[in-house]
């Protein structure tokens, strides 16, 4: 919140650009390694039903997605797949949701 009117003293001491565009505290580098015993979302005519899982990762207002792993309920994501997020507070919440690629609902 930036006040509409400030005193001259406050005006001199305040770095307004830091209030409007704060500097991040750091970068969170995240790697999703694997999932085990995920729910099957894709029915199969022959054999066991499977999924095409991927993860939707959100930190603050930024969302990124992993690649999807086809036809498995026990995915292993690539070791070189990373997701970088700027964080502005250690209190920011990280959300990771596992989804199925071809689920339409």
Please describe the topology of this protein:
Blueprint lengths: L7 H6 L2 H5 L5 E5 L22 E7 L2 E4 L17 E5 L6 E7 L5
Antiparallel strand pairs: 1-4, 2-3, 2-5
Q: Explain this structure to me?
A:
- There is one protein chain.
- The chain has helices at residues 8-13, 16-20, and strands at 26-30, 53-59, 62-65, 83-87, 94-100.
- By secondary structure, the chain is mainly beta.
- The strands form two sheets. A three-stranded antiparallel sheet has the order 3-2-5, with no helix packed on it. A two-stranded antiparallel sheet has the order 1-4.
* Total count of helical runs of at least 4 residues: 2
Report the span from N to C terminus.
38 Å
User: Which H/E pattern describes the elements?
Assistant: HHEEEEE
Q: For the largest beta sheet, what order do the strands appear in spatially?
A: 3-2-5
- pLDDT < 50 stretches: none
Overall pLDDT score: 87
Number of DSSP strands? 5
Gross geometry: elongated
Query: Could you describe the largest sheet, including whether it forms a barrel?
Result: 3 strands, antiparallel
Q: How much is the radius of gyration in Å?
A: 21 Å
What share of residues is helical? 10-25%
Structural class: mainly beta
Beta strand %: 25-35%
């Amino acid at each position: 919140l930036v006040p509409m009117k400030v005193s001259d003293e406050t005006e001199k001491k305040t770095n307004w650009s830091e209030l409007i565009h704060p500097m991040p505290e750091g970068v969170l580098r995240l790697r999703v390694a694997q999932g085990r015993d995920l729910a099957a979302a894709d029915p199969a005519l022959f054999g066991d039903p499977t999924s095409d899982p991927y993860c939707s990762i959100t930190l603050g207002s930024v969302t990124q997605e992993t690649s999807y792993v086809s036809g498995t309920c026990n995915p292993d994501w690539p070791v070189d797949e990373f997701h970088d997020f700027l964080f502005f507070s250690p209190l920011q919440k990280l959300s990771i949701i596992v989804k199925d690629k071809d689920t339409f609902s």
